[in-house]
Amino acid sequence: MGEETELELLITIVLAAEDDRDAREACRKLVRRVGGRIVESGDCSDEEPGCWSVTLLRNGGESGNSASAAALSRSVRAFMRELGPAYSNARVSCEPPTAWTVVDDPELVGELVDGGERLLVEAWQGDSLLPAVPQESTRPEESADPEELGDPDEPAPETTADPPLDDVDESGRPRTRLGMVVDVLTERHSGAEWPARALASRVSRAVTVAGSAERPPAVRVVLDLGPFTADGPELVSWAASELGGQGWSMPAMHSTANTVAHWSTASASPSGIAAIELFAFRPEAVAEISPHSTAQFAAAVGSFEHSA
């Protein structure tokens, strides 16, 4: 029997809000109802104006071994029953190391969170590549005193909110951007994009899905994780450590990217995350692509991404 590990639930609410603070405040009612803590929020207005997402983390309520699809699914179903009868019939999908369900009903989600439009509930194994999300994630160029981080479940003062980095530095030079390519063993694009986006959120609050393509038996998802102030090896090494897992390659230079690192699973599982590639680059290194052009971004990745 495999070693048992605790399951974690990631609960993501997509809602209409004025700003980050407003979005987090709207989700406090759900936090008080189900427990856990807010670990991430992000602006998704590129998909719809005024759209924000907030992610909560809480214990999944049981443990399971590495092959326990049943335990993952039970954890999601138990949480949905906890929300009430109207939510208990939601269809649960499972592709270890995760199981998930989506409620795309503004009326139902609005009962949980003011302005709520969509709800995603994911169960993850504690020892999977997406480990328990910490209260705060510190970028490589930042230092943080744990005593200064405060309680993530309490409204943060306005002065503690980190503004998003500009795409260019003070000298007008494009900042280094971090990208990620994730191969997910699944036949469905939706079944690949949710796990890939959740994985990327361990590293950045500014995650954009640049594109996806079928690479049987996997679906490959390309993500732009935004600008950083750190460069090359430091940035990629930090991102790999945030993601966790064993077997990452050493960061290496590439002709079209500053630095690339690769991870792949040795498991013969027919589903789940099969491979990841992290890459750091400056936009001028890939023919001056626009950081906001996801199509160009995805095309540029093709020149140095790993083989399926």
Mean pLDDT: 74
Helix content: 10-25%
Largest sheet: 6 strands, antiparallel
Encode the helix/strand succession as letters. Answer: EHHEEHEEHEHEHEEHEEEH
| Count of distinct strands | 12
Order of strands, main sheet, comes to 2-3-1-6-5-4
How many domains is the backbone divided into? 2
Biased composition (Acidic residues): 143-156
Region (Disordered): 127-176
Could you describe the 3D structure shown?
The chain has 308 residues and is of the alpha+beta class. The protein folds into two domains: 5-125, 50s Ribosomal Protein L5, Chain: A (2-Layer Sandwich); 176-301, no CATH class. The protein contains eight helices and twelve strands. The chain has a six-stranded antiparallel sheet with strand order 2-3-1-6-5-4. The longest helix has 15 residues, at 69-83. The chain is globular. 41% of the residues are buried. Mean pLDDT is 74; it is low at 127-138, 141-161, 285-296 and 302-308.
Fold blueprint:
Elements: E1 5-16, H1 20-26, H2 28-34, E2 37-43, E3 51-64, H3 69-83, E4 93-95, E5 98-103, H4 106-112, E6 116-125, H5 146-149, E7 176-185, H6 189-200, E8 208-215, E9 218-228, H7 232-243, E10 252-254, E11 257-264, E12 272-281, H8 294-301
Antiparallel strand pairs: 1-3, 1-6, 2-3, 4-5, 5-6, 7-9, 7-12, 8-9, 10-11, 11-12
In short, what is this structure?
The chain has 308 residues and is α+β, with helices and mostly antiparallel strands. The chain has 8 helices and 12 strands.
